[in-house]
Amino acid sequence: MDDTARGAATALRSAPACRLHREGPPPAGPGLLATVHHGDAATPPELVAGVPRVRLRVSADAAAGFTETWTAPGTVHSGRSGGMVFAHTDEHLFLAGHLPRGDRCARAVAVAYSAAFELVLSLGFPRLVRMWNLVRGINDTRSGTEVYRAFCAGRAEAFDRHRARGLGMPAATAVGALGGGIGFHLLATRSAGVTHLENPRQVAAYRYPRRYGPRPPSFSRATWLQPDPVEPGRGVLYVSGTAGILGHESVHPGDARRQCDVALRNIAVLIGRANTARHGIAAGFTPTDLRSVRVYVRHARDLDAVRARCALALDPAADVVFVVTDLCRRELLVEIEAVASASGGARCASAPHGGGPAP
Fold this sequence. Notes:
single chain; 359 residues; alpha+beta; CATH 3.30.1330.40; 6-stranded mixed beta sheet; 6 helices; 21% helix; 34% strand
């Protein structure tokens, strides 16, 4: 294969790219897989001019909103099925769905997520990479069970149904939202290499004891997407929502600053070369390599303290968004997700939020 052909093939295998837009409608362009708006209104996902559009209500303040655009090289095909919308290239898939609010959360989640997984498989993208779950009233109690625990039970049932088909358990985030019901969206790939990572500082979430609910959460701590098998050090690492949890226990109750420090340290160990090598990945990272960071903070009063801690740990040029919302456990005050890439790949570009040297 000559250099031109190799370059074209590599481009087609490149990971999906994300860009953040803070003002005005995001621009349209080639390879557009989806737009995801985080703002003051929520609607079920829809196709607009053939592009999936997701609107999530995460704030009562319209000025605090932002929009992600997801793109991938190649021709994009889109469609809808059973209330879900999707778009894909030859290699990568974006899919989104929504569950209306109801009393039988576990059953509804099991049915909806099973349908999503069936659609992913039928479209020919059998490797899940990343999932986001926005859950209204995540810490509320409904029918005697906390909503998040019921959500986890339904999600686990959906994964159980498809375990034999090799979907894998991807990186994920599950946080609160102000919109009704549960909104979810995901990325999957057809043939790119996918490796799911765990963290030596934490018990795997899917092995949590029953004290946290009838079924444990279904996600890995991170997922490595390697688009090109001949370039093992090139790819994208998607870091799940990471909180102040050691082993399986929440630490430093009531102290957002210290919880933030633990979350950042957890991420540092997770993405560090010692842990990535343990999972057979040629690339390793530090927190200063992160260029797409989303920080979820339970209370607005803790924003300044959390911003300050993040500024110390992250590169000044890091792309950081802070979102005030509820988290999966009532005692957790901070959760951080991120993306890192080696030799190119996914990156969310946005105006930086502060900075400072890493400690």
